[in-house]
């Protein structure tokens, strides 16, 4: 739902900016259009939200492997629950673009790398046992992306996507007395990222933009030996995604 809402918001902003750009173009026909070819560096800041769908997955290691049992269930359907968190993300980026004029339209192709710091963490509680909890922490994210768009004078509309990685730590624990389970996992995780945005070149060497990105890192697993029973190896699979919407400023060389 969050991703859908952000896409609608970005689309609305694009329509407003395009209309404004068209009016400005009518009033200043003698002004040259931005070339959009060249490299840039920039910084951005914005809103970030992470979600994790946690599954109490069946044992794969130890004496109970292959039994179909999980930490809190004796078989499917397995316990699932969610957790989320929202915060601020800020970072830097660098990239290059190339403009191509085809059929009277100005197309822009390019590549960009970026790095962002954030502090997203969330903890959820099992629907079966209130003693069982699982959570995640995201400290930073980076990406290497392609982007492609169409330029309308000094305004660029684009889509983007590529490779992503992030530092994601996951943990699951049982607060029974004494603690009978506390397992963890994660680290630098690989995934994909996709999104889109709009960018306005308000001066020859400067541009400002609004960008939405959706990151998906698949399953990040917390596992290890339980304190009791020691033959059990709990396995909690975290399906981690997060979304950002950010404003960026670029200096174009």
From TrEMBL:
Q: Which UniProt keywords apply?
A: Cell outer membrane, Membrane, Signal
Question: Entry's InterPro entries?
Answer: Beta-barrel_OMP, OMP-like, OMP/PagP_B-barrel
Q: Does the keyword Glycoprotein apply?
A: no
* Gene Ontology CC entries for this record: cell outer membrane
Superkingdom, natural source: Bacteria
Membrane spanning stretches: none
Signal sequence range:
1-24
Question: Where would you say this protein principally sits, based on its record?
Answer: membrane
Where does this polypeptide localize? Cell outer membrane
Annotated Outer membrane protein beta-barrel domain ranges read 14-252
Task: Report if keyword Ribosomal protein is assigned.
Answer: no
Per the record, a Pfam family? OMP_b-brl
Q: What PANTHER family does this protein's entry cite?
A: BLL7405 PROTEIN
State the similarity comment: Belongs to the Omp25/RopB family.
Can you name this protein?
Outer membrane immunogenic protein
Q: Which organism is it from?
A: Rhizobium subbaraonis
């Amino acid at each position: 739902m969050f991703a859908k809402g952000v896409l609608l918001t970005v689309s609305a902003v694009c329509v407003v900016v395009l209309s404004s750009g068209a009016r400005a173009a009518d009033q200043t026909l003698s002004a040259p259009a931005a070339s959009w070819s060249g490299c840039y560096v920039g910084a951005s800041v914005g809103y970030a939200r992470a979600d994790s769908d946690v599954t109490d997955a069946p044992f794969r290691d130890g004496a109970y492997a292959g039994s179909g049992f999980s930490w809190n269930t004796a078989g499917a359907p397995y316990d699932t629950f969610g957790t989320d968190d929202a915060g601020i993300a800020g970072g830097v980026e660098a990239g290059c673009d190339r403009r191509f004029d085809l059929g009277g339209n100005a197309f822009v192709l390019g590549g960009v790398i970026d790095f962002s710091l954030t502090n997203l963490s969330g903890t959820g509680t099992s629907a079966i046992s209130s003693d069982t909890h699982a959570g995640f922490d995201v400290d930073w994210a980076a990406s290497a992306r392609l982007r492609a768009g169409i330029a309308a004078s000094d305004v660029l509309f684009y889509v983007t996507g590529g490779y992503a990685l992030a530092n994601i730590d996951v943990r699951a624990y049982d607060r029974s007395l004494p603690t009978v389970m506390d397992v963890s996992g994660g680290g630098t995780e690989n995934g994909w990222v996709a999104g889109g945005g709009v960018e306005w070149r308000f001066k020859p060497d400067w541009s400002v933009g609004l960008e939405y990105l959706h990151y998906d890192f698949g399953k990040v697993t917390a596992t290890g030996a339980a304190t009791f029973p020691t033959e059990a190896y709990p396995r909690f699979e975290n399906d981690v995604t997060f979304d950002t919407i950010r404003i960026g400023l670029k200096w174009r060389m």
